[in-house]
Amino acid sequence: LGSGPQQAYFPSPAPGQAPGPAAAAAPAQVQAAAAAAVKAHHHHHQHAHHLQQQLDIEPDRPIGYGAFGVVWSVTDPRDGKRVALKKMPNVFQNLVSCKRVFRELKMLCFFKHDNVLSALDILQPPHIDYFEEIYVVTELMQSDLHKIIVSPQPLSSDHVKVFLYQILRGLKYLHSAGILHRDIKPGNLLVNSNCVLKICDFGLARVEEPDESRHMTQEVVTQYYRAPEILMGSRHYSNAIDIWSVGCIFAELLGRRILFQAQSPIQQLDLITDLLGTPSLEAMRTACEGARAHILRGPHKQPSLPVLYTLSSQATHEAVHLLCRMLVFDPSKRISAKDALAHPYLDEGRLRYHTCMCKCCYTTSSGRVYTSDFEPVTNPKFDDGFEKNLTSVRQVKEIIHQFILEQQKGNRVPLCINPQSAAFKSFIR
């Protein structure tokens, strides 16, 4: 990363290159697991003024791969802080790709919630003729829920409650904005060493569709976390698909293994009906004919929900009661994020989060001052009306280019890619 072109001592860029200083700012290594990350975090803060000395031993490096794009851990040269840099490559290949990226970009700039990852900055784009990829700066998180679940690190019931509370708190906000995430899974739930959690990767997100006759894409949600209505070919679905995914993750936090781990979508559906029993015809009303026939051809299954108590010793009556409200076959009967947050199982998670983890409450000499709204929503909703009139790649390219420049107005010194750095050369591969 380099600071922007206002500073006169930077050499003028070659055509097509973003301007920037020749030396890459030195980063601090980010550890994969949350426990190791704590150490790295403290190490970084103690040695912020030794950034240049760390150059050789702690390089910029990739830390994850999203639905569309790669994420790197880098240093912001303006303040020496570690941040995440997401590269959205090949943005302008076709109109569908352009629209999807613009939607994700607009969402990242719209979000204002502590449990939802948002854009801190967007790198200064080059001249429009050389504008091929977009780089978004977000907060750097140290791990994700997938890494934590598969690690040997013990997870107490307090951990599970505070994680689930934050997932639902972020989801209530997203759903209040009219947004379906459509890829909720442990790898898209970023976690810091202090257990603060943020929902990320909006590459598949979209605004809810009120018109049930409008078809929605089936190619969403990682299979293990895919709701039965999608598996059964429903052409329309709601934000209830995200709640199903959260139910699967809740069970995975309790049992430390994937709840429905199938080899194919049909087997995925069979595993779900093994647990929930054969659904009623009413629950299958939106399913495609083939999926309904598959269910009716098979043997009639009784529900086996009590097996959820065997997930672990933490699968208490309260835990299983909430889990069973999320893992409901009929999406219209599935609990909402708002109602799930009111479940008594999450009372302790709420208390813990707002007592020592959140940014919305604060401590004074006379005690803790709590916010008036523990689980805020957004008003107005996210508006995707900008998508209606996008008709060509060149047009969208110009609009995105202008959007990024407008985002930077009045902001700090703009950042841009330093094309001379070794890290950048591996980033563009």
UniProtKB/TrEMBL annotation:
Subcellular location(s) per record: Cytoplasm; Nucleus
Region ranges (Disordered): 1-25
Listed GO CC annotations: cytoplasm; nucleus
Catalytic activity entry: L-threonyl-[protein] + ATP = O-phospho-L-threonyl-[protein] + ADP + H(+); L-seryl-[protein] + ATP = O-phospho-L-seryl-[protein] + ADP + H(+)
Gene Ontology biological-process annotations: regulation of signal transduction; Wnt signaling pathway
UniProt KW Secreted keyword: no
UniProt-listed Enzyme Commission number(s): 2.7.11.24
Keywords, comma-separated and alphabetical: ATP-binding, Cytoplasm, Kinase, Magnesium, Metal-binding, Nucleotide-binding, Nucleus, Phosphoprotein, Serine/threonine-protein kinase, Transcription, Transcription regulation, Transferase, Wnt signaling pathway
GO MF, any single term: metal ion binding
Regulation: Activated by threonine and tyrosine phosphorylation.
Lipid metabolism as UniProt keyword: no
Broadest EC class assigned to this enzyme: transferase
Species of origin: Pygocentrus nattereri
Domain called Protein kinase: residue spans: 57-346
Protein's recorded name: Mitogen-activated protein kinase
Superkingdom of origin: Eukaryota
CDD domains named among the record's database cross-references: STKc_NLK
Family assignment from sequence similarity: Belongs to the protein kinase superfamily. CMGC Ser/Thr protein kinase family. MAP kinase subfamily.
Cofactor requirement: Mg(2+)
InterPro entries: Kinase-like_dom_sf, MAP_kinase_CS, MAPK, Prot_kinase_dom, Protein_kinase_ATP_BS, Ser/Thr_kinase_AS
Binding site for ATP: 86
Pfam family of the protein (one): Pkinase
